Amino acid sequence: MSLQRMSKAASQPGRFQVEPLARPNSGSTPPTNLMGPLPEYLIDAFQRNVLFLDILRRRGDEEIEITSRPMATVLHYEHELVMSGRSLPRPMNYSLLRILPPNGVAIDPRKRPVVVVDPRAGEGPGIGGFKTESEIGDALRAGHPVYFIGFGSAPAPGQQFLDVVEGQVKFFERVVELHPNAPRPFAIGNCQAGYQTLMVAMLRPDLFGPCLVVGSPMSYWQGVHGKNPMRYLGGLLGGSWLTALTSDLGDGIFDGAWLVKNFDVLGPATWLWGKQYQVYTEVDTDGQRYLEFEKWWGDFIQLNGDELQYLVDNLFIGDKLTRKKLHSHDGVTFDVRNVTSPIIVFTSTGDNISPPSQALGWILELYRDVDDIRARCQTILYCLNHKIGHLALFVSSKVGAEQDEEFVELMDVIDCLPPGLYEMVISPRSKDTARSEFVTGDWIVRFEPRSLDDIRAEGCNSPEDDRAFAAVARLSELNLSIYRTFAQPFVRALGSQPAAELARTLNPLRLSYTIFADGNPWMKGVRTLAARVAADRKPAAAGNPFTALQTTVSDQIIASLDAYRMLRDQWAEHMFFGFYGAPFVQALLGIRVGDEMRPLPGVSPKESASRQSRVGKYAAKLTKGGFDEALTRAVLYVIAADQPLDQQCALALNVARQHLMHLSLGEFKMLLRDQFFVLQFEPERALEAVTILVPEADARKELLDQTQSIVGAGDPPNKAELGRLARLSLLLKTQIARATPPAIAAAH
């Protein structure tokens, strides 16, 4: 186009115009090109990397500092030493500590003491009380004396697992001595400490109140196909010989970092990427939370090689605990059926380390049905969570504010529950349910009777699965024997203390902490640079497209690692059952097709005679007693119509125990069990005998009013309960009050 034509076109409006250059965006409207968001993102990313690197530096310094302590605890609470396990005839590195209440918290020494036992599974102690909302925190706020059983970072020379179990008997004896007028302690065992604490209770059931086991794998073979891959690990490694080799290379010491790494490997997406990426994206606010948890997760402790070998051979691979094949030094058989106080199992379907099948499977291995549980006068409860993972069972603040709080509040109620199997169902308090003396929090608890079929529904092995795991146990014994005979002498001859220390220092998991500590010369300037970055922080805007792209890439990394995990776990399961489930392999190991690996314990003639005499004993109690027996029997009769026992009714009955019956908790527990079995064996005659126990008209009216008051403490009585109240009214020849009388409230 010529200059003349261009000039002419420019003179005609709308035909040819040159737009002025765009000015920089000075308002709130985001720029349309990418040159604005990119520098913003790059500055933000640089600053995030510096701050994240500083968090890793602090994490490394904390790991070095805490692992250098003899007692490397992360307890949030002040404490004092009550008893050291190193002073026992068989020394151990455990100690009994008394938790000192914070300012403003009053402790009642007459209340049931609470003893928290932390797991020794690779990390140091204190996780049961490293937050305010925790097992220890809930018990303190409720006014209970609290004790903590922790451990040192290094084992006592020659320490064995049975030394720990038998030594803790002395700890519980000491707690009972310190509180002679209180009910027996409420014991809480987390993870590995769960079965360990139950083993203590099996030896001395008289020292225990209710026992709460949290995320504890009691039945190690049990599981569900397509889930729970950790149970295959021992078989895929050829048994426990690798544990012995690792201990020998460590000069007789097993590094707990290897156990922590086993947990990490279960979830590579979280371990390798997700956990760190979450802190990176929330680097301005999430650092302290991350460091608090990593302080415990990186608190690697040590175990004696022989101590861990016992656990791997007899529990993890041998699965001998619930099959009554383990014995104390004195020859006493460890039998869960010896525990006379209630056993509470807290587990989660989201737990891939100790899933419900492993936490509850022992019930199927020891009892034929619920009547078998009742015949042994045992009470077993379980509480299921369907969201959280293993660590959250005893780490999460939400768990502390929900399940832990209810366990503590209702420990006395649980101790008095009639024998049987229950699920402890915790539900949010509805808006229609007002707070009262029986409902103080945001949750309502029901104790719902269950059968063994409910336990089977959570997953259990088939006989074919059990034979495959039995084959693993046989092969493990063979391989361990071969290693000890031919290889162990040479490995031990080549090993030394300096080499073992070097191997622990260079452990990949431990190195992932220490390499970022201040001791690394390359980290020298990080602290200063991080301080400058924090002072001039410029985070990217929420809608930055490069941040969105970063999130997409992270999601793809997590999805890829999850896909790898699923393929790996499927392969592991396929290889495990393909080899150990083969009849030829099982035959070589002495296992025949049709062999039963888990026969139910039989009933000895002595036990049978004892049960029969118990029936006669309870029959003799039909007409013995007075108002207390009649009230307890009447309440049990009415609530049995609706099966579940709710929190309000249970607490109302406990108030009646205190202010109407004037019985101690132990006396009431015996009374309630007596009346439960009287109703169980002779339901019709037991009900009719109430008129003999309470012959006076005024006492009968009081009995009916109190029964109605207790049953109606929560929701109004339903049709079935009203029917039983009507029948009771007919027997007593007295009228039911139109409204629930405030008898319990008036009593105190």
Tell me the radius of gyration.
32 Å
* CATH topology descriptor of the domain at 81-221 and 319-456: Rossmann fold
The first-level CATH class of the domain at 81-221 and 319-456 is given as: Alpha Beta
Q: Major beta sheet, specifics?
A: 11 strands, mixed
Arrangement of strands in the largest sheet: 1-2-4-3-5-6-9-10-11-12-13
Count of DSSP helices?
32
Name the structural class: alpha/beta
The name of the CATH superfamily of the domain at 81-221 and 319-456 reads Alpha/Beta hydrolase fold, catalytic domain
Oligomer: single chain
Question: What this model shows, in words?
Answer:
- The chain contains 32 helices and 13 strands.
- The protein has 748 residues and is of the alpha/beta class.
- The protein has an 11-stranded mixed sheet with strand order 1-2-4-3-5-6-9-10-11-12-13, sandwiched between helices. The chain has a two-stranded antiparallel sheet with strand order 7-8.
- Strand 3, helix 3 and strand 4 form a beta-alpha-beta unit.
- The radius of gyration is 32 Å and the shape is globular.
- The N terminus and C terminus are likely disordered.
How is the topology of this model organized?
Layout: H1 3-10, H2 37-67, E1 79-84, E2 94-99, E3 114-117, H3 135-141, E4 146-151, H4 161-178, E5 186-190, H5 192-203, E6 211-214, H6 233-236, H7 241-249, E7 253-255, H8 257-266, H9 268-281, H10 287-297, E8 302-304, H11 305-317, E9 343-348, H12 356-366, H13 370-375, E10 379-385, H14 392-395, H15 397-409, H16 411-415, E11 420-428, E12 443-449, H17 452-456, H18 463-494, H19 497-505, H20 508-514, H21 526-535, H22 545-580, H23 583-588, H24 605-619, H25 627-639, E13 645-646, H26 647-661, H27 665-681, H28 683-688, H29 690-693, H30 697-711, H31 719-732, H32 743-747
Parallel strand pairs: 3-4, 3-5, 5-6, 6-9, 9-10, 10-11
Antiparallel strand pairs: 1-2, 2-4, 7-8, 11-12, 12-13
Helix pairs in contact: 2-10, 2-21, 3-15, 4-5, 7-11, 7-18, 9-22, 18-22, 25-27, 25-30, 25-31, 30-31
